[in-house]
Amino acid sequence: MNLLKILTNGLWKENPIIKLVIGLCPTLAVTNTVENGLAMGLATSFVLISSEIVISLIKKWIPNNVRIPSFILIIATFVTFTDYFLAAFFPGIAESLSLFIPLIVVNCLILGRQEAFASKNPTHRAIFDGVGMGIGFTWVLVLLSAVREILGMGTFFGFEILGAAYQPMIIMILPGGAFISLGVLVGIMNVINRKVESQNG
Amino acid sequence: MAQEDNNLSRLVITLTIIGVISALALAVVYQWTTPYIEEHQARAREEAIFSVLEGAVDYEESTRNGITFFEGFDEGGNLVGVSFIARGSGYQGAIEIMVGYDPANDEILSISVLNHEETPGLGARITEEEFKDNFANKPIGEYELVSREPTDPYEVETIAGATISARAVKNIVSEAGFTFEEYYGGGN
Q: Residue B81 CB: number of other CB atoms within 10 A?
């Protein structure tokens, strides 16, 4: 696989949310506003890319038996860093994401990429994988939160766009709305995918 | 990845080294970010004091019966009101609210939510003016949540889709009124 392929892999073909269907906890929990979705996407991407770099660098010295605890330690370090950093410099975002920041540790997308990619590939390839997967995760989060915020509150990024006459569908910003919109989104993606495949075949 | 050399000491040493390096790195980050975080908290507290005690330009801390009260003074040095931080549990975590009182009339001046962990977009709307204004100029007492325009001075309009958070705030502020009367007034 060349580097460009690794990069674009996460955007569509092996997109963590819509194709691999992993990392769903933050996907469902914080996508009720675009600001939260984007912040969560970027925070997760940072943790993902940093841990992929570190793990691909030290993979030779990690005994196979303790690789999972080692990965978790490294991931947790970057998550705690992110938590402090956001609290210090972006207090508004830190406040609205609150406990979902520490929970990035258990996002299986991050551990999954260490197992599947960073621990088997050289660093430069791991960086491309992290960036691709990170962008892939973020764009789905932003799309999902845009749909939910517009339908659920009539706003986009906090700006009113549907006008005062619009009666918001509160279900869309509740957990139920997350399942509904994710289901519809994955369905649409599958239809597009099938169309593309049948054209290519 | 090394497959063969999996003896116990090697496992322990590897994890220890990673743990120590992580801890050192985080200690540095903690040192670096803590002043900023404390500054935000101090500023948030000060902003909350001035926002609930309208007209105050200066404040003094006064501890009575173990609770710290903030007494706000206007430019002429007159007491504008007294506030303190009331705490209670919300939907998924603690809520801290700065409540300002007019001690002369036993009335709430206004409230400001300092910290909360309510659901973004739903329960988090307890921080919006529309909800907080419910409590402005209310007499101290036990409030009641209603889902229409309040008609009685003890009624508070709820937030659609966030009744639990709205009720939590209502309870904390009701409770705070009694705490204020007992500890601030009674402590003299």
A: 27
